[in-house]
């Protein structure tokens, strides 16, 4: 006798569709919310709705924002001559956390990945080229991930921009802070050697 | 410059409150929902709302249901002389999946666990005793988990019911199907020996 009420099955299904949540975790989350006395389910429901209603992409840099253009693109304090190109909005947060960068951003929303059917036209590359063409950009920092797809995407963008008189840079590769030489993989160590700097 | 829009922070926070979802997973889920073109966020939001609005506990067995009493408690086909006592609604589903049990259920909604501040009065034990007292129950199957708390809770219930002229049973312990003797822990193997049966 399958007695699971349809609303429970529906929520399990909805959770299962999220990345990294399998059917077992989805059940556990659902039954946790059934049991919880508080308003966790309602709060989560409202937060999801608000996200859909209030979040949009910045018309300039394509980062997420409540109002477009986003605060970074509008800020008078940012250096408008530099654009840091990242894959995802989360990467913007990561770079902002360093407090080392004062320029603008451009969020690609993915990487070129033929295996996943993602081509250059699916990313915000054309919009990046338009931004560069329309003037006063002096440096493009390619901050895609140090993965195969990230490197390919960076190379693709570099070729698209090579005719422009701008500096194109890539984040340094090397040993991560707190890392251990002994446990570094060969590629990382090779890049660290290659990029060694005089003290 | 912390530029994360408040609705994004709110959803990350709401996800983080769920068990097994840390701040990193919460961010990943949130950004996945931002990026997804489909209506996954809205579907999840609606499913959560529906859960809260339509799910209640059965007034007899305390399993989750859309209408109380639940279909199992109302069914004419179930054996009303047996009650299987479980910790959670998910356990009812697990027992139902075996298709071996035709009796009724009683969901405790937890186990006695002084460490977590859960005493017998926090569970549906009084209601179980009332059900037994009010007649025609012949067997109580204690199907709490084979954990320390599950065993303790079963023992507590057994003592509460020992004065009644009913059979009180506990699920068999032993080697799980497909298991390997070599990898079985000592307690499981000891229970399997203890509970050995003539062929």
Brief summary of the model shown:
Two copies of one chain form a homodimer. Chain A has 199 residues and is of the alpha/beta class.
Defining traits:
Dna Topoisomerase Vi A Subunit, Chain: A, domain 2; Helicase, Ruva Protein, domain 3; homodimer; two-stranded antiparallel ribbon; 13% strand; alpha/beta; 199 residues
Walk me through what this model shows.
The structure is a homodimer of 199-residue chains. With 199 residues, chain A is an alpha/beta fold. Among the domains of chain A are: 6-52, RecR Domain 1 (Helicase, Ruva Protein, domain 3); 79-170, Dna Topoisomerase Vi A Subunit, Chain: A, domain 2 (3-Layer(aba) Sandwich), CATH 3.40.1360.10. In chain A, 43% of the residues lie in helices and 13% in strands. Chain A has eight helices and six strands. In chain A, the strands form two sheets. A four-stranded parallel beta sheet of chain A has the order 4-3-5-6. In chain A, helix 1 (6-16) crosses helix 2 (23-35). The longest helix of chain A is centred in the first third of the chain and has 15 residues, at 40-54. Chain A starts with 5 loop residues before the first helix and ends in a 5-residue tail after the last helix. In chain A, 30% of the residues are buried.
């Amino acid at each position: 006798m399958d007695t699971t009420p349809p609303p429970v099955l529906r929520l399990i299904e909805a959770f299962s569709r999220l990345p990294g949540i399998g059917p077992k975790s989805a059940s556990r989350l659902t039954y946790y919310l059934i049991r919880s006395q508080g308003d966790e389910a309602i709060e989560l429901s409202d937060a999801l709705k608000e996200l859909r209603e209030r979040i949009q992409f910045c018309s300039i840099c394509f980062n997420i924002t409540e109002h477009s253009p986003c605060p970074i693109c509008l800020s008078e304090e940012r250096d408008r001559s530099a654009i840091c190109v990242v894959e995802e909005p989360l990467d913007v947060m990561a770079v902002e956390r360093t407090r080392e960068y004062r320029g603008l951003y451009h969020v690609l929303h993915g990487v070129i990945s033929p295996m996943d059917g993602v081509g250059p036209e699916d990313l915000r590359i054309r919009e990046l080229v338009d931004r560069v063409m329309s003037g006063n950009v002096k440096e493009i920092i390619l901050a895609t991930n140090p993965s195969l797809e990230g490197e390919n995407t960076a190379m693709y963008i570099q070729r698209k921009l090579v005719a422009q008189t701008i500096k194109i840079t890539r984040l340094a590769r090397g040993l991560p802070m707190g890392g251990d030489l002994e446990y570094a993989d060969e590629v990382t160590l090779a890049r660290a050697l290659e990029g060694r700097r005089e003290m």
